[in-house]
Write a structure and sequence with these properties.
Elements: E1 8-11, E2 14-17, E3 20-21, H1 22-29, E4 33-37, H2 38-53, E5 59-64, H3 71-80, E6 83-86, H4 89-97, E7 105-108, H5 114-123, E8 126-129, H6 134-141, E9 146-150, H7 176-189, E10 193-197, H8 207-228, E11 232-236, H9 254-266, H10 268-273, E12 278-281, H11 285-288, E13 292-302, E14 307-311, H12 320-324, E15 330-332, E16 344-347, E17 356-361, E18 371-374, E19 395-400, E20 403-408, H13 413-417
Parallel strand pairs: 4-19, 5-6, 5-12, 6-7, 7-8, 8-9, 9-10, 10-11, 11-12, 14-16
Antiparallel strand pairs: 1-2, 2-3, 4-13, 13-14, 13-18, 15-18, 16-17, 19-20
The structure holds pyridoxal-5'-phosphate.
Length: 427
Amino acid sequence: MWKIETPLKNINGKLFFANVNTAKLANEFGTPLFVTDSERIISNYNNLHSAFSSHYDKFKINYAVKANNNLSVLKLFNSLGSGADCSCPEEISLAKKMGFSSKDILYTGNYNSEDQLSFALKQKIIINVDSSSILPRLLRIGTPNFISLRINPGIGGGSHSGLVFGGKNTKFGMSKNDAIESYNIAKKAGVKKFGIHMMTGSSILDASYFKKATNKLIDIAVEIVEECKISLDFINIGGGFGIPYRPPEKSLDIKKVGSDIGKIFNGKKSSKILNNPWLFVEPGRYLVADSTILLTSVHSIKSGPIKYIGVDAGMNTLLRPALYDAYHHVLNASRLNSRPKKPVNICGQICENTDILAKNRKIGTVKEGDLLAILNVGAYGFSMSSHYNTRPRAAEVMINKKKYKIIRQRETINDLIKGQKVVTWFK
Ligand SMILES: Cc1ncc(COP(=O)(O)O)c(C=O)c1O
């Protein structure tokens, strides 16, 4: 059974989000509509920060921009004192636009082009190199002052095989031996400051995983420091902190993660050999996933062996169910007090049979015209949405203590044809 918890509220069977009636938002802005509660982002940031910084004070959060790149979200993280973890020049540009300074931007790309490396070099941000073949190419363009290397520590985790980034058979990171060679090359080329990084998986709810992976990275860091005679300014343990999407999953015990990692960083290897490096994390999901709901209207219901509830959001709006078989809880915002009945499938309007947002769900009575709310869509929701089947992307609204504002206009046909040129060859 799903418990309605803050910022969700059931008032006379109608869903309120951050104290605003969701029906009012849908009437004012239309559907599908992403609605983000900024207060939830702030409390997630503060929880994560205090879980780690109460054990180790040289601690910094670098928000992973790819999770949700809305400018207002970036502005909020900048105001909280976060750094920004960017995956491409475009994300670096957005971060800069929203006030992040060069020293607060990390660039973790993979299989980068020379243009991308050259752009990053000019920005004087910290470049996190993913493979030993990229480093010489980067050094041919110029010598950065600060470099970090992404290690594959031989361990991976994640709620779906597509979310495992470390261990065997992944395209990310380099081996310890490649890293030793690369640090030596960088040192010889005149790089002055170094960091080390891993990002081994996403959506992980098991606190003990982070301890295991961090111990591995620390052991590798110790070998590197001793072998290459360099010092590491920071050790970046990546993101990956999960949130409970599917009942009865429990929240990640972030206090335990913070205290386990704090112990490792206060331990002998870190304090004596690594000389008290900065501890960096770069979470996306943990900070933004549960800050946002997706409102969508029911347009058509088809009966059969299983009922299909057809809504105006689809895999174009929220890709995660089709991509990862991901679970997002769905509430009927118009009839919260209706008793659960036979299971239904909730589908979008896209011409693909994978366009199912929720399978076999007991959500009670649903009628055409109802408003549904899909929960926990703040991470990899809008940012993974597309124009597939010629669909303009949804609008986004941010709520701050009952105040709300559109933070991204709904797209129109003009956005779909922008930049296209029609050839004059055909009559
Ligand atoms: C390099 C890197 N850092 C950070 C993240 C954020 O991960 P999460 O949202 O699981 O915290 C990702 C996600 O794919 C990533 O690839």
